[in-house]
Amino acid sequence: MMKNNIPSGNKTIDIDSSSIFRHLTPDELAQIPIDQEPEFYKRGTIIYSEGSRINGFYCVQKGIIKIYKTGFDGKEQIIRFAKRGDIMGFRSTVLKERACTTAQVLEDAYISFVHGDLVLNFIKQNGNFALELLQIACKELGEANDYITDIAQKTVRERLAEVIIHLKKEFSLDKDDYLQISLTREELANMVGTATESVIRLLSEFKQDGYIEIRGRRIKIINEKALIKVANINE
Amino acid sequence: MMKNNIPSGNKTIDIDSSSIFRHLTPDELAQIPIDQEPEFYKRGTIIYSEGSRINGFYCVQKGIIKIYKTGFDGKEQIIRFAKRGDIMGFRSTVLKERACTTAQVLEDAYISFVHGDLVLNFIKQNGNFALELLQIACKELGEANDYITDIAQKTVRERLAEVIIHLKKEFSLDKDDYLQISLTREELANMVGTATESVIRLLSEFKQDGYIEIRGRRIKIINEKALIKVANINE
DNA sequence: CGGGAGATTGACTGATCTCAACCCGGGTGG
DNA sequence: CCACCCGGGTTGAGATCAGTCAATCTCCCG
């Protein structure tokens, strides 16, 4: 069960799943300790939380992690999800700061950890590695900027529609056209930045209007065009 | 008038003002074309706008630039400001994408431009340069995440108080304790993510309560503690 | 002096939040 | 086996923050 990830050479870091490690030379790869098996994390586990020290990259091999910040009144704001191939904790590692988010397992996960010193060396030695990381950071930055504009300017209804579209892109659909991610109403609300009750009401509105179908936590997209229109996005 | 910036050696890129260039070797510095004088941009000028191609770093030597995104209905959302020492356009350069924000001069500025190919080479060759850039990106990312949480969870009143505190930190006060940046009510609203009228009403509330004084666009902070309390921040 | 941009104020509206009650299904302990 | 409990989901009613619209004002400029 540890072998869900494809070892590369005799390494346990899954190169295919973490594009950044593609750029490492064999020498550099060899510096990653052999014993660094990806670790199993059960649903609900908190991998790290706001304010904790983390010094290294968490590389998700499998599973889904939700990354959120806790607001003043304790309400969580979901910033993003991490899944196979994504890295967590690089902001704190690069800045040598404490975590400013909490990472919690949504779907059972395998995650490997690469120590910060090692990563910082790679960054300094290997330009392509550095560039790739920079690209990841910049991509997130662009997404964050979009998010800011949306939350500041769009209605809850628009944002919820947008979140659904976004989830489809990120997690795609299963054979029955249901989103491949299971979120509570509260978690949806914490993405949209609204109250749970508002999400519930709007979801049933979307259902009424024939845009989606709902089976428990599973959401099926019936009329994507309409959702896109509601969300006011141009794609 | 071109000489407001301090040349380093016979270079016109002001090393002191742009920390990232500290890390360049003399050889690398020499690759930056001599004729690359910082250019003057008058208040109101748009340096680049959403969707335009930019391939390179704009390094602000002097002045203040507002960087914003335009929302669906044309309303602008101010993402950040750039001032002496800040870099603009690195997201687009690194990702080789078009700009996703607009940059407009708020206070007359001198800005030098370093071509993207050059920068990308520096990133690949010079680990410290790459790391510094990565740190800048990560810092912005952390700020963006805070911003998201605030906009999603706080009231307009809280956010406005927070913006004022934030402006004080970023631009500090002049001799009379006034913020060293001049923004229209609309621009304040576009930072907070609210309507102009709401900003006006809240500002006069803050004035009533003795937290601030207002002289035209100039804002003086009288009771910072109270503002911090209103903003619900812990510092 | 006319015009335009930005600032202000008041009145009104309505999207969303909050609070509270209630439902439902699964798991647990007696 | 059943009563109970608990987390999550739903629904309704009422309260309210904040957005919109419109009128007015104040500068400043040509």
Structure summary:
Two copies of one chain form a homodimer. Chain A has 235 residues and is an alpha+beta fold. Chain A contains eight helices and eight strands.
Describe the 3D structure.
The structure is a homodimer of 235-residue chains. Chain A has 235 residues and is an alpha+beta fold. The first copy, chain A, folds into two domains: 7-150, Sandwich (Jelly Rolls), CATH 2.60.120.10; 154-231, Winged helix-like DNA-binding domain superfamily/Winged helix DNA-binding domain (Arc Repressor Mutant, subunit A), CATH 1.10.10. Chain A has eight helices and eight strands, in the order H-E-E-E-E-E-H-E-H-H-H-H-H-E-E-H. Chain A has helices at 26-30, 90-95, 116-125, 127-153, 156-171, 185-192, 196-208, 224-231; strands at residues 39-41, 46-48, 56-70, 76-83, 87-88, 102-115, 212-215, 218-221. In chain A, the strands form two sheets. In chain A, strands 1, 2, 3, 4, 5 and 6 form a six-stranded antiparallel β-sheet that branches. Chain A has a two-stranded antiparallel sheet with strand order 7-8. In chain A, strand 3 and strand 4 form a beta hairpin. Chain A is elongated, with a radius of gyration of 19 Å. The first copy, chain A, starts with 25 loop residues before the first helix and ends with a helix. Chain B binds a DNA duplex (30 and 30 nucleotides) through helix 7.
CATH topology of the largest domain in chain A: Jelly Rolls
Shape of chain A: elongated
Amount of helix of chain A: 25-40%
The class by helix and strand makeup of chain A works out as alpha+beta
The CATH architecture of the largest domain in chain A can be given as Sandwich
Largest sheet of chain A: 6 strands, antiparallel
The span between the termini of chain A is 40 Å
